[in-house]
Design a protein that fits this description.
alpha/beta, TIM Barrel, eight-stranded parallel β-barrel, two-stranded antiparallel ribbon, 9 helices
Length: about 260
């Protein structure tokens, strides 16, 4: 999908769909907590937020009303920050329900896994209509890719017109299937090799799990990529110590970016 907006070099993912206060007391759950975390992360160096909302019990939800409330609050408190909403299914939502959220909300940016929205050839026609609608509505779609086979599938979907031509925005998820979801910088290589075989260049970003998150993101920045950091994927600083907050994680990664001469 052609990028209608350029995502900034550093994005924060402060909560995700699965972790809760038992994992870290500073993990933001309520809308007010998410907004406060976003403002602190903006000041620390994150130009965008990858947003999840939770229901009253703290569970994952794709409730358009809650997302609308969060977007309004973020736009008021941190107007400079780009907002990307998650359409993650978490085994709860169907592709049609994920797409309906976007059609109802009309956000400026979303992330969506091709495995979820286009699970097989039978779903390609509806997915093509959805991606085309996003293009017409100027909604930035970041495609979530979990391994090199997803990169190849992206190329196929572009070739057959399911995903509109252009420079697709993607995020490589490092370590999703590694032991204990502990990523390593070497996990990036297969993604980049698979992407090199595509006819189009990708606007790519990386997220990584576990205690090696900082090292993985630094490797991505060295290779020319953008990065997503935060408690959705990792709670630890590079020294192995538990981070105090999402802002502390952002600050460490922003510091690595500056040391590499990046903005």
């Amino acid at each position: 999908m052609t990028s209608m907006m350029a995502l900034p070099p550093i994005m924060v993912a402060p909560n995700g769909a699965r972790r809760n206060k038992a994992d870290h007391q500073s993990l933001p759950i309520s809308i007010e907590e998410i907004v406060e975390a976003a403002e602190a992360c903006w000041k620390a160096g994150a130009g965008a937020i990858h947003a999840h909302v939770r229901d009253e019990a703290g569970g994952h939800t794709l409730d358009a009303g809650l997302y609308g409330e969060l977007i309004t609050a973020l736009a008021s408190r941190v107007p400079q920050m780009a907002i990307q909403i998650s359409t993650e299914a978490v085994g709860i939502y169907s592709p049609s329900e994920q797409m309906q959220l976007v059609r109802t909300l009309r956000p400026r940016a979303i992330s969506a896994a091709i495995r979820e929205l286009v699970p097989d050839a039978a779903g390609e026609a509806e997915a093509a209509r959805f991606y085309g609608w996003c293009r017409d509505e100027q909604i930035h779609v970041q495609h979530i890719l979990y391994d090199a086979s997803d990169v190849s599938r992206l190329g196929q979907l572009m070739s057959n017109g399911v995903i509109p031509a252009g420079q697709p925005s993607v995020i490589y998820v490092l370590g999703r299937y590694s032991t204990n979801q502990e990523s390593t910088p070497g996990d990036l290589g297969p993604f980049l090799r698979a992407a090199a075989a595509l006819p189009q260049q990708l606007d790519w970003m990386v997220c990584a799990f576990g205690r090696n998150e900082t090292h993985c993101l630094e490797a991505a920045m060295r290779a020319g990529g953008k990065v997503r950091v935060g408690f959705e994927n990792s709670l630890w600083n590079a020294d192995g110590m538990l981070a105090a907050s999402n802002a502390e994680r952002v600050a460490e990664v922003a510091g690595r970016a500056r040391s590499l001469g990046l903005r």
